[in-house]
């Protein structure tokens, strides 16, 4: 389905400024052609998210925590409680609420390094719907100056192109830093791909161990009547058939083995390499959590003593992982919506409503409030509050003078 999107009213177009390296980037990627991402997002998502519990929980933990943070919309002088953009953010489309939309956006960025939001308008100044588009279906088309001139969304054999008109894009593209790609971001799941392969291989090894009666393999020794006899082909095939049907698999675990005709069972214990295999799996799990920025303690991974307690790990998780991601995404969304509506607004998370940072915020408020050498305007700026109107500032200063 092709969705209509907003276009800015025709007017005077200011002189465009561009980097001198833009034409070089465009020449390398081919101006007007689709710049394909070098990674296979579908495979990484299937292997590292759908089929890996550590990757799945890491993405879910970050995306759910980030989408649960309340957002603030303000301009230079006012913090809005009611605003058209707040209304569309609270119910961005008929099937999603704010938390659902933001969770999908954060998850796309974590899984592919790129997030795409589409604005759908009715021809007025503000969008009426917002949609998160799947990253593996989106392609960026650079222009002669290296900047995007369109985005192409492909599903099966059908494609739809979103054109960038007068510098205003119907698509908000949020990407992670990539040192060797000019158009697409680098996902944490790609950095953790090796550790994910090791962890998945260790899980398959454990599954294979369970399929073989949940114990290390042993040896069946055949001794003929003379002590050195050799089994016939029929005897060998019969033995293999009986072992596969009666002594392998979880349902046959613990079943006693009946040996005849000079057969003897010699069990084998775990080798040192087998004993180290579980440690290798736990080490791979910690590397996956490290790539996503999730303290292993929050994922229940044993052997991690980086943080003294769960509360400290949770505070570090919000401070070092959740807040940087939320600040980047909300800042990009606010700037993009400002370009569409023509109204300079700022979108950011409400840090005062983050339970994990309550102690830090209380200390900051007390410290700023007690700084007598700061003016009220400076205190509000330090706390991220908008400036007061001129009459409010004057009345405040007069009240302090009377006191």
Total tally of structural domains:
3
Radius of gyration: 30 Å
> Which regions are unreliable across 5 or more consecutive residues at pLDDT < 50?
1-14
- Approximately how much beta-strand content do the residues carry? 5-15%
Count of helical segments?
13
Number of strands: 10
Strand order of the largest sheet: 3-2-7
What number is the mean pLDDT? 79
Order of helices and strands: HHHEHHEEEEEEHHEHEHHEHHH
What distance lies between the first and last C-alpha atoms, to the nearest angstrom? 65 Å
Largest sheet features: 3 strands, antiparallel
Overall, the morphology is: elongated
Class by alpha and beta content: alpha+beta
State the share of residues found in helices, binned by percent: 40-55%
Please summarize what this structure is.
This is Phage portal protein. InterPro entries: Phage/GTA_portal, Portal_HK97. The chain has 403 residues and is of the alpha+beta class.
Structure description:
The protein is of the alpha+beta class and 403 residues long. It has 3 domains: 22-191 and 320-333, no CATH class; 218-267; 352-402, no CATH class. Helix content is 44%, strand content 14%. It has helices at residues 22-29, 41-50, 53-67, 84-90, 98-112, 188-191, 193-211, 233-246, 272-292, 310-341, 358-369, 376-382, 390-402, and strands spanning 71-74, 114-121, 127-133, 138-142, 148-155, 158-163, 171-175, 218-222, 263-267, 346-349. Strand 4 and strand 5 form a beta hairpin. It is elongated and about 105 Å long. The chain starts with 21 loop residues before the first helix and ends with a helix. Residues 1-14 have low confidence and may be disordered. It comes from Celeribacter arenosi.
